[in-house]
Structure formats: structure tokens, C-alpha cells
Amino acid sequence: SRLGSKDFGVNRARVEALIALARTRTRPLILSHDNPDPDSLASAMGLWQLFRDRCGLEAKIGYGGIVGRAENRNMLRVLKVPAIHTSRIDWSDFDLLCLVDSQPSMGNHSLPPGRSIDVVIDHHPPRPSNGHTAAFTDVGGAYGATSTIVVEYLRAAGVTPTSEVATALFYGIKSDTQDLGRMTRAVDEQSYLYLFPFTNKAALAEIEHPAL
């Protein structure tokens, strides 16, 4: 784990290690926690673009449970998030399993028993591993949202987020920090401001104000 930081060298070293790992695989799956919230979905989208642009890999995004809130359903639809329910996943199809906005021992995800996770990225405090190990782990630190960690990765890797990805990450930070009013760190504000010019404002309004 580490503290949120503007230290480009730290972020560059971490993201290059992640990229190096991903390049040894061919079929990534990025798993959110069950009943995913905007931060979890956005983090998955950012990692999806990183793998696509820097590794040439087309990842899938998986989630368990339901997408209940109207805003979150709008997010999936408006931003065309390439997410599939875990009930439709053949786990043997994937050779790189990534967990975002959660940790293996937290139990709020739909990873089948016996399957190991290769990558764990989460802003929540570290939890006991309970025997789970991952080749790449970045958990805890001074972050208000996992989306902020992923924004740092994209910037350090020289990847400019697409409008859809930027809008998702912006909304992920906005939602998890309650408009930068809860558990917000300077690095969250920096990422929020960085993303703003890339966001689709009309799409953001449609996500935040769903039709009844």
C-alpha cells in the first residue's frame, strides 16, 4: 500500500509493473464488487482502457449482484460500459483476473471458490489476505476513490482517457466523495480537475438525472 501522491516516479513504476504483467497474458477480466457503484464501474473502465491502449488487450468487465440505482443503470447505458454479469462468465476463458474497489478477503464479489486474483486495486484500507495472494496489489493509501488511483495510472502511462472513460472516472470520484465533500484528499481533487475537460457534460447530466 502507499499514500496518494503526485510523485510521477512512483506512479510510473507501479503502472509499468502492471502493464508488464498484463503483457504476459491474453484474456483479462476486470471484476467489480457485487452490486457495483459508480467508483467500481469507473475503475474497471479505466483499467480496461489502460489494457487496450498500452497492452493491445480487450478486457471484459464483470459484476455480480444487480445494478440497482437508476443512476448506475444510466451509467452503464449512456457510457456503453462493456460489462457482463458473472452468471454469463466462463471463468476458464480468462487468464488475468483483476479485482477493483474490493479485496479478495472482503467477500463482496463473485469470484468463484478456488480462483485466484492476479491484480487487486482498491482505495479501502488493507484487509487480511486470508491466504489470497496477487501478483500486483495496490490497496489503501490517501485516496477517496479507487477511480483516483486509476486516473494516476492512466496519466503516468501517458494514456488520455476517452470521453466515456473520463466521464465514468469523473462520476466515480464525484459519487464516492459526495461531490468532494467526504473523505476527499488533494489527489482526488487533482484527478477531478484533470478529468473535467475530457468529460461529456450532456452524458453526465443524463446519468445524474435519470427519468422517473
Notes on the structure:
The chain is of the alpha/beta class. The chain is 40% helix and 11% strand. It is built from 7 helices and 6 strands, in the order H-E-H-E-H-E-E-E-E-H-H-H-H. The protein has helices at residues 8-22, 38-55, 70-78, 146-156, 163-176, 186-195, 201-208, and strands at residues 28-31, 60-63, 83-85, 96-100, 119-122, 136-139. Strands 3-2-1-4-5-6 form a 6-stranded parallel sheet, with helices on one face. The longest helix is centred in the first third of the chain and has 18 residues, at 38-55. Mean pLDDT is 91; it is low at 1-6.
Tell me the strand order in the biggest sheet. 3-2-1-4-5-6
How far is it from the N-terminal to the C-terminal residue, by CA? Answer: 42 Å
Category from helices, strands and their pairing: alpha/beta
Q: Runs with pLDDT <50, length 5+?
A: 1-6
H-E order: HEHEHEEEEHHHH
Radius of gyration: 16 Å
Give the beta-strand count. 6
Helical fraction: 40-55%
Shape: globular
Biggest sheet architecture: 6 strands, parallel
Number of helices, counting only DSSP H or I runs of 4 residues or more: 7
